[in-house]
Amino acid sequence: MGLLTILKKMREKERELRLLVLGLDNAGKTTLLKRLNGEDVGGTSPTLGFNIKTLEHRGFQLHVWDVGGQSSLRSYWRNYFESTDGLVWVVDSSDRQRLQVC
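That's the ARL2 protein sequence above. Prediction below.
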């Protein structure tokens, strides 16, 4: 898992990557994913559980797992790490009171 795995997959014929998007609740994980996919971000609501989006980029399929960040869900995050090629940690830098929690 990590950068070396991604670089190895880029050289091989396996053209699929699984990315996990984590962060505290209301950090902007779903908004970021929608922006990357060219979707409207109006009316975005908190993720309860998880969402999976598949994005196409330069011949790769990116299976992006957007996992809810509520404190009640964080203990389940470890269950999503298996077979994950990369992790994106989203931080709301304008929420100074919660930067310590990150």
